[in-house]
Amino acid sequence: MAATFQGLGAAAALSLSGSFDPNRLHLPCRRSLSVTRLSFVVRLEERIVSGSNLPPRRAQQLVSKAVATKADAASASTASKPGHELLLFEALREGLEEEMDRDPQVCVMGEDVGHYGGSYKVTKGLADKFGDLRVLDTPIAENAFTGMGIGAAMTGLRPVVEGMNMGFLLLAFNQISNNCGMLHYTSGGQFKIPIVIRGPGGVGRQLGAEHSQRLESYFQSIPGIQMVACSTPYNAKGLMKAAIRSENPVILFEHVLLYNLKERIPDEEYVLNLEEAEMVRPGEHITILTYSRMRYHVMQAAKTLVNKGYDPEVIDIRSLKPFDLYTIGNSVKKTHRVLIVEECMRTGGIGASLTAAITENFHDYLDAPIMCLSSQDVPTPYAGTLENWTVVQPAQIVTAVEQLCQ
Amino acid sequence: MATAFSSINVVQHARCDNFSVASRKPSSAFLGSTYSIRLSPSASRSASVSAAVNRKASSVSAVSEVVKEKKQKSVSSGSNLLITKEEGLEVYEDMVLGRVFEDMCAQMYYRGKMFGFVHLYNGQEAVSTGFIKLLKKEDCVVSTYRDHVHALSKGVPAREVMSELFGKTTGCCRGQGGSMHMFSKEHNLIGGFAFIGEGIPIATGAAFTSKYRREVLKEADCDHVTVAFFGDGTCNNGQFYECLNMAALWKLPIVFVVENNLWAIGMSHLRSTSDPEIWKKGPAFGMPGVHVDGMDVLKVREVAKEAIGRARRGEGPTLVECETYRFRGHSLADPDELRDPDEKARYAARDPIAALKKYMFENNLVKEAELKAIDKKIDELVEDAVEFADESPQPSRSQLLENVFADPKGFGIGPDGRYRCEDPKFTEGTAHV
């Protein structure tokens, strides 16, 4: 036992910054010790071997209320060339433009996407380049133009429908649920619907209740669609391209506060996998599952946690439907503790589904109940202070981890 | 441009001088509405030709067409018949197929061969035949839950439709759609929708694709037209108006056909609509609105020719209101107690099949024997369809999880690292999704 502790201490000192107190490490004590120790040792060896190969972790400078404006080189990008720096909305545009260049059937529809360039500038310049029909300014009729996109997708085009704010797509729920998700099935596989529905959602900076909605919880039950959430310029571009190339209908969730994130991304073309989760920070003690903006709150909490001696493993699940049970499962098997941090509402949110999925599949590996931190079931208030209290803050994450790791 | 409609009301809108310059912009200038100003709205819109022609400075809206009313067809002369013998037989056969098929559906339903909601089209055959028989195979048709006859008119074999109704795997949608979701990629039938109104945006999208193909993908010969069928109840739904706006705005090649049978289940059209004349709503959005007697297939056909021709030439959409009637209830579950028996009797006397027969006999187009031969042929066809459907297999369990995604990777990655669709339980249909 002592030898193991010492070994861990050495390994930990190799790869963790900050002081490490081996006495703070808590072994899971509900299982038979021998089994645990064995697995612990195995993990330890793996850790020592791979410690030096760990990609450099990025320090996230994010104040809880404001948008992160600068970030250092991405840990996720493994560019061989230097790459180029850009903001997240530019990365989305780059991905969209590359796909439109590549395939003339890709078109964009939405409010103010053409001449205005998009309310968040994701489609800026595209109408000049591709014309008014390919980058279509629609009237304010979400249900109808989303349905039009679906009809166009069924007859051979590959539209990208933009909801100016994700919340507006509630008006298109009829089309998204009944037609987008179901028609491939009810037509017996005759018509495919390669549509991408995208837009910014999430709690912004005092935008009020209706502009601060998280629709991922409402859409997740629709059969036949995939949902992904981007969180960095690197995965934004990759997921945009993957979503456009996918034959399935994909809903791409962006976040209002993340559009100005800057990152260096590779020059060469890359497409990410729609169904895979992203390992943000490997760790040993606890698995923290998150997506979109909460990733940054988690990473900020991770700094504090590391200083306190914890080693959280942070995974950006990215694929909200379906869940990447492989990455998640491997992590659960390693750490035995799960914390889900999300911006969704508590009731019926992504976290609730994820909790159910993990419990179903990995119950035996858990040493503590899964804890899920979500936004309060409250319409987002306008007042800044109240708004802060509706979403999960880094301090809450730290407390939760401490609680789980006792 | 003069076109001939017979015995119909057409809204006339003379072109205002202010508009004429704007509307000569090339169709590729995709700037949206070409109307710069609106004059004061006219007090009332007269449906008569002469009054409208006099109203030169009328506000709006529609693309103008000066329509001359055609003289009522004289029975004696055969030189200006509305239809040739071949066309007449084709049209007759299609309507009889629709009628016999629907009657057979009712029989099969009461025998327990099909279940759920089945909505029959008896009495409205003139609308389906009148429009769809003028379409090419590449043209798209979008319908509602009352879609069996639209499918048959478009060319989907009766066998496939009947199998679909029986829920067999040989159905046009492999048994997965049912009565309300008829689809056929081969015949470009894009549904089949259960909620009213939700097919109209889909139709608008299909028309958009046609325009896109011509103008962006430069397929110069792409002039495919989409015809959207829906009822009077749908005309109070927001999606209808949103699509009228977009179709007129972008001059999409689409025809909106309202099958106004005066009843939405038990809700009379007059009780639910502030202005029951639906054709009037077309000009409000900038497209011609036409009202036609939907119990007369020849009149419907004339209007359809013009409307489809307009769309094909790139002149934009048309709203056609067909006054028609369903002889049966809303669905086979509807006791149909609210409708006045006198009303039913009046419309039964205007049975479109009987009317066409009468026209063809009076004009010596066909002989009794030829029509009887068609009747027999159709009876056999429908019997064969029932037999085929009866003998077809039910879908096996393996079909359950197919077709949920076009790319089954969408089911995600399982705990073992493999895509879940690679799991044999998926092809067997026993996996839990």
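Chain B touches chain A through 65 residues (CB under 8 Å).
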